[in-house]
């Protein structure tokens, strides 16, 4: 996209109705994940989904290399829709030891910002999240970060096309990473 095209898109503001629609969509997604209603959540995912959460590296401010978006580097998630469906199928087998007993989740979503794109049916959506996970009597994890999504309007509704997740933690201290963010 040229700089002029970027300026034209940036000068157009999304409508209040669109912002509310997308906020409600993100809140619904969080509720579905909290309730482990994964089949319904998968319906929100586009066929060409890319779900990406790179490992974080601590870097000095002077280091301007853009390693965060480098898809060739190590990542916690670098999945497509089929990969996610395989992960979810494993939960249904009864052999996912990290989910028996079940983990309790609460996703909090905020700082939602919607940007229009050159394509009238796609929207860039920024958000922040706080995920609280509780398991057994004493296992508790909190994960905090931000996301950059691309959502596309289809005949079936808005679909998640791309999600890039950045955790604030440099080192993931959780015993497992069995949550979708």
**CATH topology type:** Nuclear Transport Factor 2, Chain: A
> If helices are DSSP runs of H or I spanning 4 or more residues, what is the number of helices?
4
Q: How does the helix and strand content classify structurally?
A: alpha+beta
Low-confidence stretches: none
Strand percentage? 35-45%
N-to-C order of helices and strands: HHHEEHEEEE
The top-level CATH class is: Alpha Beta
> Taking all residues together, what is the mean pLDDT?
86
Helix amount, in percent?
A: 10-25%
Please specify the SSE layout and strand pairing.
Elements: H1 3-11, H2 16-34, H3 38-42, E1 45-54, E2 75-80, H4 81-91, E3 104-116, E4 122-135, E5 139-154, E6 157-167
Parallel strand pairs: 1-6
Antiparallel strand pairs: 1-2, 3-4, 4-5, 5-6
Task: List its salient traits.
181 residues, 6 strands, 24% helix, Nuclear Transport Factor 2, Chain: A
Written account of the structure:
- The protein has one domain: Nuclear Transport Factor 2, Chain: A (Roll).
- The protein is 24% helix and 39% strand.
- The chain has four helices and six strands, in the order αααββαββββ.
- Strands 2-1-6-5-4-3 form a six-stranded mixed sheet.
């Amino acid at each position: 996209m040229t700089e002029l095209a970027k300026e034209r898109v940036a000068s157009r503001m999304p409508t209040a109705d669109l912002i509310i629609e997308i906020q409600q969509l993100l809140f619904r997604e969080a509720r579905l994940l909290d309730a482990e209603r994964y089949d319904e959540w998968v319906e929100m995912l586009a066929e060409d989904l890319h779900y990406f959460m790179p490992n974080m590296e601590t870097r000095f401010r002077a280091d301007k290399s853009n390693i965060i978006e480098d898809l060739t580097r190590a990542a916690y998630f670098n999945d497509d829709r089929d990969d996610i469906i395989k992960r979810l199928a494993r939960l249904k087998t009864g052999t996912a030891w990290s989910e028996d007993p079940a983990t309790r989740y609460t996703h909090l979503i905020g700082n939602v910002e919607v940007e229009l794109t050159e394509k009238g049916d796609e929207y860039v959506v920024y958000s922040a999240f706080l995920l609280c996970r509780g398991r057994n009597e004493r296992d508790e994890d909190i994960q905090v970060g931000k996301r950059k999504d691309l959502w596309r309007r289809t005949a079936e509704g808005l679909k998640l096309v791309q999600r890039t997740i950045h955790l604030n933690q440099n080192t993931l201290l959780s015993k497992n990473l069995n949550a979708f963010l």
